[in-house]
Input
Amino acid sequence: MSKRPNILFLMSDEHRPDVTGYAGNDIVKTPTLDWLANTGVTFSNAYTPSPICVPGRQCMMSGQLPKTCNCEGWIDLAVGHMTFARRFSQYAYQTVACGKLHHFGSDIMQGWTQRPAGIGDIHTTPPFIDGKIEAEFKRYERPLSDVKWNDVKEVKRAGIGRSSIHVKDQQATETACEFIEEYFNSPAYDREQLHQPLLLKVSLVAPHYPYQTSADKFGYYLNRVKPFLNQQVFEHPFLSQRQVRVGEDVNEREMRRATAAYYGMIQTLDEHFAQVIQKLQYVGQDLDDWIIVYVSDHGEMLGEHGIWEKQKFFEASARVPMIIRWPKGFAPGQGGKVVDQNVNLCDLFATLCDLAGLDVPDGLDSRSLVPLLNGDSSNWNNETISQFTQNNVMIKQDDLKYQYYGPDMPEVLFDLSRDPNELTNFIDDPKYTQQLASFRKRLASLGHGPDADSNYVNAGYVQ
Output
């Protein structure tokens, strides 16, 4: 039997899909991501299963939607839950993670068999402590508003700087490069470990706030970026929350500074990924033999609709960049290939298994993207789903994006073919009566809404 393919899984945090060169942005410098896109397959309508870090990452790793894997909030997967890292380790893969995983339960490895020394995980919640005395910990609890700066302050303090994000990302990159050198060359012992396939994840924190970048990048982007000014607020109890008002809360210069810093962080993460790829080439690896994936966990509003950060089902927050490259497995053609069907980060589990020849576990909300990679969309249902907390649910079908926000908030329906900037709610437009009924029926089948199926198990996708 031939050896299964090696996999390089590149990941960032909070990267808008439109701030890349390959997506048509002529300001940002992303030559590494552009190379991946131009020699691979880009998914222009890829979405996160949850537009916030922890559940988005847990769902991606488990190949399951938040309700299926019980991560409907800032919750980690249960101990021993099946992840694609765990699945690949069962098939003799060396599963190695460098950088941010954002796990905080007792099963902190979640199937990764190695975490090379030199970089720790990023925590925003206490680590797992066996037998912890809950009453003692509650004595020291503080509200999030006391711990985290608000969005206005994040914008105001943006600019030139080197935060812990830069330090950790550099450490993660250096650790990954050191691991590659040791794994393939082992210069000290001269015993490379080529007998097992490798799944290597390099997961960076950038371009997550705080928005800071080096002086040279800041100077380059400052007068080139186009910050979101004069934004129309979308009137909705949830979608209009956390406004940063230009002219009242911040000024135009501060908006420009924050946007420039964000762009600089994206250029830096591109440079880090280049180092990893160059190290693979240095040790003699043929990159065409490798499956290379790039994704982010969610996007960043960056001031669009007057909002920063994520959590919303607007395109800037819920849609993510996704690229898969494997010239030996599928030929995208000159200049790469773009798939415009709706897909989800959850789909990566089944896809990677399919590409590597592994059996896909039962019970996933994950569909193999291999047919789309090979140009066949005939049986694709073109649906994608996202959820934030227990009440907020998005279902996108073709160009229609339906959103449910519980019994006390109005539903929302966007039609991206008519309104790509998401300024109009078509929920009461009689033209969409039939589609709305279909969305509500699907919502119920997913275990949400007033008619929720109490026997919900999963999304019902058939492998």
